[in-house]
Amino acid sequence: TNGLPEVTFQGDARLDDLHTADGELGEDLLKWDSLRVAGIAANLNPPRVTIKQIAVDNAYARVVIETNHVINLLAALKPAEPAAVTETNPVITGAAAPGTNEPPALPDISIGSIVLSNAAVRFTDRSVSPNVNLTIKQAGGCIDGISSKQLEHADLNLHALVDGVGPAAITGHINPFSGTQTNEIKVEVKNVDLTPASPYAGKFAGYRIARGKLNLDLAYELVGKKLESKNVITLDQFTFGEKVNSPEATHLPVRLAIAILKDREGKIVLDVPIEGSIDDPKFRIGKVVTRAVLNILEKVATSPFSLLGAAFGGGGEELSYQDFAPGSAELTPANKTKLDTLVKALYERPALQVAISGSVDPASDRDGLQRVALDKLLRTRKWMALGKSEHASTTPEQMTLTPAERANLVKMLFGEAQEAGKITPELMAANTNLAAAVNQIIARKHRFEKGATRLMAKETPAAKTASSTAAATPAERSKLAPPADPLEALLLLTIPISNDDLQALATARAESVRAYLLQSGKVAASRLFLSESQTGGVRSDGSREIG
Fold this sequence. Notes:
By secondary structure, this protein is of the alpha+beta class.
């Protein structure tokens, strides 16, 4: 009907003892003991091919990436340059079906099964030094029910051993002839030793691989050109070895990434879902997976605590610091909640170590330390007034002060500070609002005439000038927001706070955090380090401890 002759063929075919070699290097390229095609029934008009079974025994392929990155098999299979098209040398191409723009229909093709027995592939990459060598052995299995009919799928079931140890399996349902049917493929690889890939790690990560196993659980679904996949990559007991000076190695913190990702069982689990169109030239599965891994490394470099927070209860970068009240090293409930998350993260990531650095806000913490010192002094004064019998059972820290008791003790200490010369004219002049309030108290109570009245009378023009300068000090701030008790506010300013006091506060904050982590019993002391400022001075990042 379409001008094709009626031609049929029935029978079997086989090709035994094939052996090909690389013409340049003389190495094995592709060989097999036997290739058998049984039960062939072919018809030319209409075109139809039916094959009962294709069986391949003891096939072997040698795949080599040369130093110039050329793959030997692709170079061997590369077709010759096409001849020029001329009137005497036309090129025959497929034609669309008559009257349509559709491609020509596929012939009716049916293959009962393809059986693979004891196949092997040896892979060598000579583009890295030392070379990478990997072998897939004992590959076998079958593909059953291949058909060009749209609604029929072939069952895929293949298995092999990677380097003779790691079992690998490929299963699923496919229709290689259809552009619309769903293809589902699952790949499982277990216990593959990673040390043969150590040259790659040295080249791109900057460290060789001391040990580790690879497990893959991959699931691919292809509908037409749209691919969706789930890629779960598990590294078991992965450990970096010696450092390699490679110009191509990343500068990202790969060792820190391993410590953050490795759980208590020594496993690193990466879940990398992928979707895209396979006809998109920019879409490459290998590049997508590589990009996902690089994203994790970049996240480790820029915000490691975000990764820990996401994995163990939230907190993000807030896990990297603890806020404190001014002048205090005492943990707040909010701090303890964040530290509980950090304890959990450190417990689940035993390879992690933490450097703890205390920090202060010089302005607010200086003011806070003054208040802490005054409060301690007031409690001590009340404690000193107790009898000797009460001293044995009570400490100054246990003393409580009523508002009236506090006010009276403040007045007492203020008078003592006057007598000791700590309430200077310069101090009064630099705090005019406080001095005015004190002057009212003096006029009303007549209790500090010898000291405060005389000091107010001695205010000098130089002192007035000093009081008008804008300086970010607790004294200057007191002019903007007078406290309820001006006596106490001036008394606070007489308490000296040195840089050593600020450094001690920073250290106490770091030690407070370390003690809380240790008391959990889940973090060893050998994993926690107190760290000082690299500049050698007190760290001034704020009233917080930084991990």
